[in-house]
Amino acid sequence: MVIRLESLTKRFGNFTAVDKVHLEVGKGEICGLIGANGAGKTTLIRMICGILAPTEGRGKVLGYDMLKERKAIRDRLGYMSQKFSLYPDLTVEENLRFFAGIYTVKSVDRQVEERMDRFGLQEIRREQVSSLPGGWKQKVAFASATLHSPSLLILDEPTSGVDPIARRGFWDLLYGMAAEGMTVLVTTHYMDEAERCDRVAMMSRGRLIMEGTVSQLRSRSSSSHDHIRPTLEEIFIHMIGEESPRDGTR
Amino acid sequence: MIRFQEVTRRYGEKTALKDIGLTLGEAGIHGLIGPDGAGKTTLIKLVAGLIHPTEGKILREKKLRLGYVPETFAMYEEMGVAENLHFYGQLNGLDRERRQKRIDELLCWTDLDRFADRRAGSLSGGMKQKLAIAAAVMHRPDLLLLDEPTNGVDPLSRREVWRLIQTVAREGTRVLVSTQYLDEARHCDRVLLLHRGRVLADEKPQEYRQSFPYRVWIVRDAGGVRGKWLSQLRQESSVAEAYSRGTDLVVWSREAETVGRMLERWAQEEEAGPVETGSPDWEDVFTRYLMEDGEGEEKW
Amino acid sequence: MWRRIGALIQKEFIQMRRDRRTLAMMVMLPVLWLVAFGYAVNFDIETIQVDVVDHADNGDSRELIRQIRNQEDFSLTGIVSTTEGREDLKQGSTDVVITIPAGYSGLPRKKEETLRVQVDGSRLFTAQSALRKVNEFLLDEQKENMNRLQDEMEKSLQEGKTATVDLSQTPVWPHLEQMMPPQALERFQSEWAKGMERQVKESIEKRVERVKEQFPDPEQMKPEVDVLYNPDIRSVHYMIPGLVGLVLIFITTLMTALGIVREKERGTLEQLVVTPLRSFELMVGKLIPYFLIAVVDFFLVFAVGIQLFDVPFRGEVLPFLAVSLLFLLGSLGMGLLVSTVSQNQQQAMQLAVLTLVPQIILSGFIFPLEAMPWGIRWVSWLMPLTYFLPVSRDVFLKGANPFDYTMEVSVLAVYAVLFLGVAALRFRRNLG
Asked: Dihedral sign, CA of C99, C104, C108, C111?
């Protein structure tokens, strides 16, 4: 198991952001973490990334203890957010070189060249990132997040707003890397994206309310639907509806 | 009601919209769908008259009453929900009695009645959008313009926002709404696909389905074999497109039988689930136009 | 560790190179400010506009007006009526109204005969300057008048001697004519007259002498003033050393705060947090480039201040640089602190301005600390600029050694450590 969380809890004062979460993700799996805003996705991800310490519970990420070996976890982790956290005023190559420096990659030149070859970035290496269209930006962000060949890649709403061809290309690459053994955790509230994951974990109000492969989730909740094949969005809305009455405010 | 004639809009060197010719104003919800940078906001601002075309002309019915909800939340955050609505009602010259009646109605539609006294700034994302829409339809406009009202809103609230839009449309207001979420096309009566400043297509949803030139197969539970299958399928000349959607494998082909039989055979030989014929989803539809258009530049 | 910091610094400089406008702003802005402020913070007014209201219209008053006309610092706007003078003062077309009372004679003996001077207190610095100059001028005038008075007294005393020497005019003369033969009488008269004259002369001389003794020497009426270090009392010389500090603290604080918040806004900070980069390394990597720019700014501001405004720098450069760097470190820490509590550049800007503006007013940059009431002065003592200013001024003007200012330097050091330390802690918590 690459990620194994046991009853992981995080409280901020009286507010419980993550409530006794059990989660296991195996090597090479692509796991989607879905939930509404404020469901606790971000807090959970930050704990897995080793930025936040859990209040209670235990967890191992890549075999390292979440509490004691956070530095080791961060060394082996890749992270990419929907905002494509690149420096817009730096060129593609400068961005890659910067992150190579931050990850203290061995033989920077070779790694950067190799990444640019693999992602087809050679022709735009001298372009400033700000001048690139969304799909390309995403590609550069993806390349820099995986520059150090992380064992675990965390994606935060990776493809919202890019065109569908770029999106398919992105997922193709992701499937390829997963097949090579990289584990991927995707947080999203975009159901289209969640449907592309091998497994999906749904969060609501800090708790994990459902977890399994997309077809497992479908078969589990089909009884409550007239359709033979409900969409993930329908499942999600149904589950949350059962979970608790809605409150309109933050 | 509004007609675009060869409209081009540039920002400095950048062309946001190019040679757009279209007619807006059919009853119902007109969806404006495309990824970031497609030109959605520019088009909506042109319709609203906030900006003007660099080239071409926009013909507009006189005395057209517009409602407009910009991308960023434009309510006064420190004011209450009802206070905001009163303010916009006053701007539109509604007298006190009509204003109160309309506000009661809108609060009910939006489910905001419980929060009438709450500060607008303290609402959740979805609630904020509903409030902004309510304020924009206080005066029952002829045309309501919504710029990405569901962007960044969670799935539950998104559904509520769409319900509200549908209610407004039923009242007789024509709606032009933009979104980057392709699957939201399903809520619309007419769908305009926009990409890099150009209109790819502008049709009714069922027409898109009917005109889709490929048959679609879906192989369920094919997660384990996707890498191998995809590389094989992409070499088949009869296969137009093959991609992985989670554990499903989606295959397009113009040829009706051969591909289906091949997939059945593969599925039996290896551990993969049933092969089903399916219909294209909105992403498939969009992708089709991009492929026909030879949009190779952003291809991976 | 150093490789990661190196990567950060390199990145920062690439960004600066790309963003020429910001770079130009970081380097040119301090100089521009210094130049603009340097000319603006001059409280000295060169020429004073004077209105005269002449109720006397005699020789003395005309003499006074002539003197005013001849005075270099004064520009006589006109001889006006009382109401006109008041009006001119109100409109600001004149700085001072001097009213000469009826019966003015240069040396007033009654209250009604004293000169009246009116200035506009709402124009504080002009009024102060004008008063100073008018007072000085009147002091000179008084001296002149005194001299004149003395001369007159001497003259009138000397006139008195011829009155009593001729015996033939006195009532005793007919008796003497009867008693003496004419020749003897003539001789006696001339002898007597000589004796008398000598006597009178002696007594007059004695009196003049006594009068002179009692009379103050007009030359000594003005005190002997010896201004050290800034002999012309030019406010520019006083302001520039302070301005150097002010410009530096402004630029460094703002630059650091904005630089870090920009990364927060763009989401790149979020990206950096999940890398092996430690918060300490991130902090150092961000601060070093800004520190270097601050040092460049220091030299620029320093050089421009000395060159352009002729401000003497009597101290030694290296010790002053050392203390200035200490001060800069504190400013960097302050910027960092601001960045940790702001979410966007606008907030950072507001907060930075909020911490900086009080320093302009309360640090003693413009208004002397001694003039502030106890409570306010206490606030002043919390501000780093308050400690840098006296050191800077004394090093510039007196050539002092900054390290003799043990209290000031140690407070600056404490601030540097405190700000950087607290900022570092907050920075770390913030990222987590």
From this structure: negative
- A83 and C267 in contact by Cβ < 8 A? yes
Assess if residue B288 is contained within a domain: no
Residues of C in contact with A62 (CB under 8 A): none
| Integer CA distances (angstroms), A160 to A37, A75, A199, B244, in order | 15, 27, 19, 18
How far away is chain C from the Cα of A200, in angstroms, using its nearest Cα?
A: 23
- Chains in touch with A (3+ beta-carbon pairs under 8 Å) read B, C
The residue whose two tokens read 């009392």 is C233
- From B184, B204, B224, give the residue that closes a domain: B204
Pairing type for strands B29-33 and B174-179 reads: parallel
Q: Are residues B192 and B230 in the same domain?
A: no
Give A148's contacts (C-beta < 8 A, 6+ positions apart): A75, A78, A100, A103, A105, A111
pTM over 0.90: no
B297, pLDDT greater than 50 = no
B251 and B172 co-located in one domain? no
B14 Cβ under 8 Å from any chain A Cβ: no
Which residue range forms the structural domain that includes residue B143? Answer: 2-204
Whether residue B123 is predicted with pLDDT greater than 80 in this model: the reply is: yes
d(CA A131, CA A31): 32
| A16, A184 contact by CB (below 8 A) | no
Secondary element (H or E) of residue B47: helix B40-48
Quick: pLDDT tens for A71-130: 888 889 999 887 778 999 999 999 999 999 998 888 889 999 999 998 889 999 999 998
Q: What CATH number is given to the structural domain containing B157?
A: 3.40.50.300
Tell me the three state secondary structure of residue B28: coil
Residues of A in contact with B286 (CB under 8 A): 163-164
Do B181 and A195 make contact, defined as CB atoms within 8 angstroms?
A: no
| Residue C406 phi, psi dihedral angles, 5° rounding | -55, -45
The domain C48-151: what is its CATH number? 3.40.190.10
Phi, psi of A249 (to 5 degrees): -110, 165
Q: Does ipTM exceed 0.90?
A: no
pLDDT tens by residue, C278-336: 888 889 999 999 999 989 988 988 888 888 888 889 999 999 999 999 999 999 999 99
